[in-house]
Amino acid sequence: MPSGRKLKEIFFETAIRASGVASIFIVGLIFFFLFKEGIMLFQTQKLSGFLFGKNWYPISEPGEFGILPLISGTILVTLGAAVLSVPLGIAAAIYIAEVAPPQSKEILKSGVELLAAIPSVVLGFIGIVTVVPWIKNTFHAPTGLTAFAGAVVLAFMAMPTIVSIAEDALYSVPKTYKEGAYALGATQWQTIWRVVLPAASSGIVAAVMLGIGRVVGETMAVMMVTGNSPSMPRGIFYPVRTLTATIAAEMGETVRGSDHYFSLFAIGIVLFVITFAVNMTADLVVHRKRK
Amino acid sequence: MRTLSPRLTQRIAFSILFAATLFVILPVAFIIGVILKNGLGAVNWEFLTAMPRASMREGGILPAIVGTFCLVAGAVLFALPLGLCAAIYLSEYSKDSRLNRAVRLAIVNLAGVPSVVFGLFGLALFVGFFRFGASILAGSLTLGLMILPVIITSSREALDAVPGSFREVSLSLGATKLQTIKYAVLPHALPGILTGTILGVGRAAGETAPILFTVAAFYLPRLPRSIFDQAMALPYHLYVLSTQVPNVAPKIRYGTALVLLAIVLLMNFLAIAIRSHFRAKKKW
Amino acid sequence: MVIHPKIRVKNLTVSFDGKASLKNVSLDIEPHIILSVIGPANSGKTTFLRTLNRLNDDERAMKVSGEVLLDGKDIYKDHDPVSLRRKVGIIFALPVPLPMTVFENVVYGPRRQGIRDKKILGATVERFLRDAYLWDEVKDRLDEPAMTLSGGQQQRLCIARTLAVNPEVLLFDEPCSALDPISTAKIEEALSKLKRHYTIILVTNNTKQAARVGDKTAFFLMGELVELNETGKIFTSPEDRRTDDYLSGRFG
Q1: CATH number listed for the domain at residues C7-247
Q2: Range of the domain at B130
Q3: CB distance A278–B112 less than 8 Å?
Q4: Strands across the sheet containing C73-74
Q5: What is the reported pLDDT for A60?
């Protein structure tokens, strides 16, 4: 007969072991529940019509559930954000990891952490009061709520991810590489450009992928500044609607069990699959290099 | 064509890098500055402790503050024990490297799941399947799942940083494995675990998408009565004020943004302070 | 009268990841002696020591065959690691004071066995710090962090901490490798006194130390026990050529 103390140990060890694998269980559970609800849409709709349909009219009779405009909106905003955030993010990572003096390095790193900490809805709010009017006035657009505004705001959400992961990649380049280059008379910049960056390239690629993954999944800020127009985007200075914003904006108005409700879960599956793929690939890129 | 000298190239390159860094960092100061400048005037005792009135165009934001507090407390209550146990498992127990890798990948993915997808999941599982309805309970659990990766990752790093010799000494003195974890490992990992938890709190306080369909009330000018009650929350309130309610005085919007930002940044400063304090004190 | 061995090792083979660290080792250790274990690096002497209180259990892909008997009981079958380690204490090469006070370091083991009485704990601290020749130096500093002690004091604190668990066997893994000659002398003095109450196994890289304090000496080479004999015999007329070569400095 085990003593009370022994029983307590057994209880805690079991709890620890169960919690250890809980993450796997939760990821499985998320996928299961998205799938369980999302799959119902395809009782009445075709998968091809869902993925490639150009019309998103979920509340007309009969509803049309083509998410191509939403996918296009997401791609447009994401590309815009990437164009802005990737060069800036990588450059900042290089500066912080390789160039900045130790004291300002800590301050700069804290700054990046603070940027990462600012809630999405606050960035969206700032976007509304600063970026949106600026776009309207500068580019003479009918409204400032455009894909471009989304790209600008999301760029700042991607940057912290890109900077911190790229920075880690730069730090993990062995010191001997740099010393070798210096020994051959290379300047610091030549060493960074020709030795450090190539050596850290896979980590930087992963940083970019994860930054983009964050942009694809970002919801509130993008919903607040892109104008919420679920039609095929006509350009960067027109309103668009992303996949995430569609779920957030419309779920409140759906009837549980309707095609509209199911279609939003189906969009959730698409998002889950995209981010799953991005994260797995980024992880693979990082770990293949380390071996 | 003449090429630039290496020295000059370096100077130009470093200047560009520096400018890029400023471009990333300065907006942080800009954002904080704008919100402080326009929001400070709105924040007073009444704003913090009164109910909203006149369709949120007047009065205070007390229910949103209380709602956020409840949600965050619930999320931590759920995620901290689970996340800490998971970290202990990964750091102290699991020897199976394949299972370890699977768990690590699951955590990476969990961290990457879009917040609105967490919202969908919470809606399907907690609101629907478990029939909690749109409630503080459902919202807390959803937020808790979302901050789980933050807590697991930082706790695990903290546990891994405790020297293996402490474990060996404790075991050699006849302590059981669990005693070793409790008395020789956890106390020294506590600062790191605390840091991660506070970061998780900051994250949970600022998230909107996961609570949209699981708890958030558009306008509910009273305090929540139980964990099965709906509640207002600061980030959702800011979203509503900025996009859903016309003709709100900018002051109220900025004031709400300021309170939210202050809570979140305070958490982050706290985490940074704890981390650097203990890093300086560490003796092994 | 027959003296029963305190520890009997029969055909012990220990391997990590398929690589054998100990090969077919058999030996008896009588109670209340100091057995010095010498040998070059990677000779298996530390593996041998750590096997005796099962500290290797958590290592990756470890395999053990053969038997280790403590008072006639198999340490793998009749003991769990916790009960075994309360009987077989170990002192490591580098002193590892836990980051707590001197007092708390000494009572770490007793507390884990559920002892809470302040008087008992206080008496324990004094008694074992005295046994480790540390009491006079730290009696006024019991509430200071153990990290503030000098290296030699830390090592004696670790000895006191191990003694406080009330073990019967003490394992020393090169306990003086990080210490200066004066601290070393103090530890050796403590060792000679301790053998009255404990059976001691001392792994050392310092053959002179083995000769000074060991009643018996075992020589390990590449995972095998080459020779075990009275210390005087080993150092004056070893039976095995390899022992002679090692002691006269031809390798190692």
Answers
A1: 3.40.50.300
A2: 60-279
A3: yes
A4: C19-29, C7-16, C62-70, C73-74
A5: 81
